[in-house]
Specification:
The protein has one domain. The protein is 13% helix and 48% strand. The chain has two helices and nine strands, in the order H-H-E-E-E-E-E-E-E-E-E. Strands 8-7-6-5-4-3-2-1-9 form a nine-stranded antiparallel β-sheet. The protein is globular. It starts with a helix and ends with a strand.
Length: 162
């Protein structure tokens, strides 16, 4: 039953992220998709399922991220800004909902997403996050956020400037 639930959630998340592709203006950076695997956190790698649907630019953005842990952890955040450079993007996210005591509502974190292309033969996409103690927009593209390869899923990063 658990396997069916995970597959159903993954399929729903992938379908839920697709509208971001259609709604993004040509001048908007875009980050959309979902992935699961070990994700870098300040407390070490944790198994998470991450969903991203964000579009906008360095001055403002629309969209959300959600993170589901195998232990029942749930975090939902509103994207404040998107900075895509090539196949990498950094998002500033403010927490809207959380059942994790050390990730309070109102706090901020940086989410990095690396789109390594399509296809089973290519390298997996990557993502990681880090607390944003000084939340600023634009999200600095050069932040040293460790991004781990995802085990399943796909992210799309579109740099409107290229």
């Amino acid at each position: 039953m658990r396997k069916v639930t995970v597959v159903t959630l993954a399929a729903a998340a992938t379908l839920g992220a697709t509208p971001g592709l259609a709604n993004a203006a040509p001048s908007d950076d875009l980050v959309a998709g979902s992935g699961q695997g070990l994700q870098n956190t300040p407390f070490g790698p944790l198994p998470l399922h991450v969903n991203v649907d964000a579009r906008g630019d360095t001055d403002g953005a629309r969209g959300h991220t959600t993170e589901h842990g195998q232990d029942g952890a749930y975090i939902r955040g509103e994207v404040q800004c998107v900075n895509a450079v090539g196949n990498e993007a950094v998002l500033l996210v403010q927490i809207e909902k959380s059942n994790v005591p050390f990730v309070p509502v109102g706090s901020f974190f940086w989410r990095k997403v690396i789109d390594n292309g399509e296809g089973a033969g290519g390298p997996p996409d990557q993502t990681g996050a880090f607390p944003a103690t000084f939340p600023i927009c634009p999200a600095p593209a050069a932040l040293p956020i460790v991004a781990h390869p995802i085990d399943q899923g796909n992210f799309v990063v579109r740099d409107a400037g290229s």
